[in-house]
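Hallway conversation turned thread

IA: we were arguing at lunch whether anyone had actually written out Sn-glycerol-3-phosphate ABC transporter ATP-binding protein UgpC end to end. Turns out nobody had. So, for the record, here is the sequence (226 residues) and right after it the structure tokens. Reply here if something looks off.
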Amino acid sequence: MAQVHLRKIVKEYEGGVQAVKGIDLDIADHEFVVLVGPSGCGKSTTLRMIAGLEEISSGEIDIGGSIVNDVPPRDRDIAMVFQNYALYPHMTVYDNMAFGLMLRKFDKTEIKRRVENAAKILDIGMLLDRKPKALSGGQRQRVAMGRAIVRDPAVFLFDEPLSNLDAKLRVQMRTEIKKVHQTVKTTTIYVTHDQIEAMTLADRVVVMNHGNIEQVGPPQELYHHP
Ligand code: ADP
Ligand code: ADP
């Protein structure tokens, strides 16, 4: 649970490309915000700066009341879900979900409690002993979400999590993600190029274009072009 504030954040890549041009955004506790816009508009760069995977050129990022500009990714109170799932192939589903907690020195009983709780939320309790190669795309995506949920972070970051799934599964997982958010209520920042996904999931949609924020508002107030 946390607010997130972006204050005039800029990303200039080597070679002078300004991918993000000084955006401001205030995100409330529990809010589900979707960054949407055409390819190359700066969505992923923005998310990666919040995660700490990309250094910011100027501006400030505040997560839960702390300026995190100089905090490494692992010490930020966030968990990120990637498009490619990023599961460890040699580990079971249980160990994939437990790994981040083991690194952070959680005790075994607490790890077990959290993994089982996340597995229940995601309905993957029967898959805990499998390896990723024995899972379907949708199941892998659930495990990737499970890894984020067990961390119980202040903020979830999603980078095009459904892009690798077929249309039917995308719709199903959209519902799943909405359900998870309603259960855990974690502040969420979600990147997609898919307007329907944005409209379905978001409390508030942030439309980006050429490194700027073009529009911000609840889905029902956007995309009206009378
Ligand atoms: P989106 O996620 O909206 O597709 P990105 O944030 O990935 O957009 O990219 C924004 C802009 O920054 C694009 O012009 C892209 O080519 C450029 N860009 C992204 N990553 C790098 C990089 N590592 N080095 C240089 N330019 C980059
Ligand atoms: P853990 O929870 O086990 O500490 P994380 O999920 O935080 O692991 O991942 C560790 C780091 O690895 C991330 O902060 C990120 O830098 C990098 N990383 C993991 N998966 C990806 C991916 N698919 N694409 C880019 N970077 C990734």
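OS: looked through it. Helices lie at 43-51, 93-103, 108-122, 137-151, 167-184, 195-201.
IA: good, adding that to the notes. The pocket of adenosine-5'-diphosphate (ligand 1) is lined by residues 13, 17, 19, 37, 39-45 (CB under 6 Å).
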